[in-house]
Amino acid sequence: MSDSCLFCQLVKGGEHLRKADGFVAIADINPQAEVHVLVVPERHIDSFREIADFPAEEAKRMLDFIAETAKELGVRDYKVVCNVGESAGQTIFHLHWHILAGPETRRALPALALADVEGPA
Amino acid sequence: MSDSCLFCQLVKGGEHLRKADGFVAIADINPQAEVHVLVVPERHIDSFREIADFPAEEAKRMLDFIAETAKELGVRDYKVVCNVGESAGQTIFHLHWHILAGPETRRALPALALADVEGPA
């Protein structure tokens, strides 16, 4: 937990769509798709590069939480995206996952560049 | 394991960039970025929707395997993408993850639509 980390603060006190077992789901403030939700773990690691620091049970719960969140949102088809590092579009250095969906994610987003898939600026 | 599943067969006998602990990394046959590698688990589930079927240790090893593969490929910044369902771009119904990277993933792929990020057709 870092006082200067926006997502550490958001996990503690932000507007949560869901919260369970050390994970929260929040709406992306700059949505790139009809549904654009972030899944953020309470545990602070800077990026996916340090994923080995996650204990097995927590790694599993994180993946389950993502799938459960999509299901609760009522989206059947969606993309799960993690941007690793600044040049890959990561803007907040606290691991997080994007859930992106639309009525037809594949065709509905023809103009959405990979470059645009990133967290809140 | 399904006889009719391309990825079940690829895990057993394909061209592997890496193989360990029930996971393989293979080059995407239709690369959408300078580096485009797929991580495929030996365990067959149709999509990320069924991720709850993964035991904790295996879920952890899968995430670790993705990060280790990127590191071995020598890419520091990259995107990890899972397409869930046909309308989100999933073409092979055996869970798999895309690792996408380039010299500058963010700026190097301005024309690459999310729609194009999918497994081999």
Describe this entry's structure for a reader.
Two copies of one chain form a homodimer. The first copy, chain A, has three helices and five strands. The first copy, chain A, has helices at residues 6-13, 56-73, 105-108, and strands at residues 18-20, 23-27, 35-41, 78-84, 97-101. In chain A, strands 1-2-3-5-4 form a five-stranded antiparallel sheet, covered by helices on one side. The longest helix of chain A is centred in the middle third of the chain and has 18 residues, at 56-73. The two termini of chain A are 20 Å apart. Mean pLDDT of chain A is 85; it is low at 106-121. Chains A and B meet through α2, β4 and α3 of A and α2, β4 and α3 of B.
Oligomeric state of the chains? homodimer
- Overall pLDDT of chain A: 85
**What is the number of strand segments of chain A?**
5
Span of the ends, CA to CA of chain A: 20 Å
Largest sheet features of chain A = 5 strands, antiparallel
Largest interface: A-B, 46 and 46 residues
Our count of helices of chain A gives 3
Keywords, please?
3 helices, 5 strands, homodimer, 121 residues, disordered C terminus, alpha+beta
Chart the SSEs and their pairings:
Two copies of one chain form a homodimer.
Chain A: H1 6-13, E1 18-20, E2 23-27, E3 35-41, H2 56-73, E4 78-84, E5 97-101, H3 105-108
Antiparallel strand pairs in A: 1-2, 2-3, 3-5, 4-5
